[in-house]
Design goal:
The protein is α+β, with helices and mostly antiparallel strands. Helices cover 22% and strands 32% of the residues. The chain folds into two domains: 134 residues, Jelly Rolls (Sandwich), CATH 2.60.120; 279 residues, Spore Coat Polysaccharide Biosynthesis Protein SpsA, Chain A (Alpha-Beta Complex). Helix 3 packs parallel to helix 4. It is elongated. It starts with 14 loop residues before the first strand and ends with a helix. This is Integrase.
Length: 435
Amino acid sequence: MNLLTAFKNCKPKKVKLAFTQAGIEYVSSLGESEHEYIYSEILNFSEWFNDPLSATFSLLCKQGSSVSVAFFFFDSAQSKLDSKIFPSNQMISFCPPEGTVYFRVALRVYGPAEDLLIAMLTGDNDTVLALMTKYNSFNQSPLRPEKFTYSEIQPLIFLETLFCDTESNASAIQKYLSYFKGLLGLIAKQQYRNFIWFIHISSDKGRAIDEIRKIVERLNLNRNTVINIYDHPAGGYQNEHETHIDRLRRPNSSYPELREKIFDNALEAAGIDLGEIAPDQIVVRIAIDDDDFVSPHYFTKIAELAAQQAPELNDETPQAVIGINRVWITHLTPGGNSVVHDVKFSRMMTGCKFSVARGIIPLTPYAIYERFEAVQNSAVREIPHKIFSLDKPIFSYNRHGGNYSNQNKKSYYDEHIATHQFKDHQELLEFIENF
């Protein structure tokens, strides 16, 4: 059910509402520090939510940064029991106060702003998730070629990117999508073509799925790419106790059983049978975060290093881990300015570390330590770890205000080689393409 229909008779003072087939378009003439509540009529709670214990809603907006939702709860005599305010563009489960019979919902609109309110979905968790997927998606089926073909002579690179995992804020998803579009363009320019890119993305991100699919097809990446769509568990990840931000926000790369499950599903989607991998096939596994960049020589250099390691792979040592310590550390600003440090880095970040094996699928890149010296005390200590220093970087480790861990990384610089500055992201991408 769509709660936006409860606002059709509203006549706010400083917010102009226009009801269209796409939703409610609004324009706010409020000042920057002002807000206005737009109230619905008093509604019967049971008509909108079947079970108070599983009550769930989501206000879907095109932007969502200038509107939030307030619920006011009333008893059978319409006396107020409590009120709560929630953000937009998130799926919210809540428990109303005991004795709730009626409720009123209000849009808290800030100003000045304009936006499109697409729908305010109500029901239980499963119902709202299904409706969110429907509203968010134009084309929700996975993207996969009928059959992947690859060279058994050259190293085969399996690249993984987990897009936004549990992120539900539409504005944040749109921001990361803007970075990811840059990465898509750079992957399309790769000179080395014996690779398969698994883009893991959850089913609740339908609009992003559709946009990524269109770019993949426009850039002729569909022969090398699987858009692997997965579902979040209905009961959540039960990870509220975690203190590390990756395990909280990216469980599908942090938890071993989850990351292997989505990788196995992606292999199946690609039609790759592990039993058909040739005994002498060199296989590489590497991951790139959704907001980082690579040079057009990235896969070429990865394949060279893998081939260089290949003679040392045998029955006793079937796989190895390789790290690259020459990297760009790029600080991005919302306005587009960027400062790039060309450095030798003491940590092996995602995108600068990979596993390589002969005839088997090697270790997941998400299990490779940032500090290679730490493997001596880990479960992977029997796997050889090597660090290579290149004559120029091939990977940009991007830092920005939206990173989950935005701490300064200068303490990890072993050598600061050069600094470059750019006025916008397009200049940065051109620099990376031509360096």
